[in-house]
Amino acid sequence: MGGHAVLVELGTTIDKRIHDQVVKLDAALKAAPFPGFVEAVPAYASILVCFDPLVADHQTTEAAIAELLGAEVPETIGAMREVEVCYDADLAPDLAAVAQASGLSPEDVISAHLSGDYSVFMYGFAPGYAYLAGVPKAIQQPRKPAPVRGIAAGSVLIAGPQCLVSTLTMPTGWWIIGRSPTKILDAASNDRPFLFDVGDAVRFRRISRAEFDARCPA
């Protein structure tokens, strides 16, 4: 990848077993960085390994990665993070449509969403956009044919097996099934601007409209 990075592809699908290999390599690079290592950027099924071209090159980087892929690395267990979500209709404009497309009631969609086994697979697209895998098959829907503009920050979105809590007001082609007051992005923090780390587990907790309004006053 250009003159300063190597892309390690470990699969082609959204699969926890593949992502576990991504997390394992990421941990190995942090525990035993090779000379010239700068950073690693994990994704769903690949990891971008960046190096200083004045110290390393593609050949030495690939050799170091190959050695780490075969090394024994202690299992990394991510933290459990909780995200609050309110499913009231005006905060969840697509909940009824997802229910109809899934052949479920809105309450069944909510129950399914709350039961998902979520983990953070990658960051991308915009600051704080943590892509979670684990949406139950019963409520998985393809992306919308066209994106919708002006979707509020904090919107809880799903598309296929993926879930995301938006951090900025932006367009989206994903389905909006709720809104969260939980702060995912802290732009003022230099030490920890994001709530999640890749590999963390996430659980959603339903809150009432009164709780939401108390956390997000108009």
TrEMBL record:
Domain Carboxyltransferase, which positions? 1-196
Q: Which GO terms describe its molecular function?
A: ATP binding; hydrolase activity
Which keywords describe this protein according to UniProt? ATP-binding, Hydrolase, Nucleotide-binding
Q: What is this protein called?
A: Allophanate hydrolase subunit 1
Q: What is the lineage of its organism?
A: Bacteria, Pseudomonadati, Pseudomonadota, Alphaproteobacteria, Hyphomicrobiales
Domain of life, source organism: Bacteria
Q: Which organism was this protein described from? A: Rhizobium leguminosarum
User: What InterPro entries has UniProt attached to this entry?
Assistant: CT_C_D, Cyclophilin-like_dom_sf, PxpB
